[in-house]
Amino acid sequence: MKRNLETICIQGGWKPKKGEPQQLPIYQSTTFKYETSEQMARLFDLKDEGYFYTRLANPTNDAVAKKIAALEGGVGCVLTSSGQAASFYAIFNICQAGDHFITSNNIYGGTFNLFGVTMKKLGIECTFVDPEWDDARIEAEFRPNTKCFFGETISNPGGCVFDIERFARMAHNHGVPLIVDNTFATPINCRPIEWGCDIVTHSTTKYMDGHATQVGGAIIDSGNFDWEAHAEKFPGLCTPDESYHGLTYTKAFGKMAYTTKLVSQLMRDLGSIPSPQNSFLLNLGLETLHLRMPRHCENAQKVAEWLEKHPKVSWVNYAGLPGNKYHALAQKYMPNGTCGVIAFGLKGTRDEAIKFMDNLDFISIVTHVADARTCVLHPASHTHRQLSDEQLREAGVAPDLVRLSVGIENVNDIIADLEQAMNKM
Question: Of 135 and 395, which is predicted with more confidence?
Answer without folding.
Answer: 135
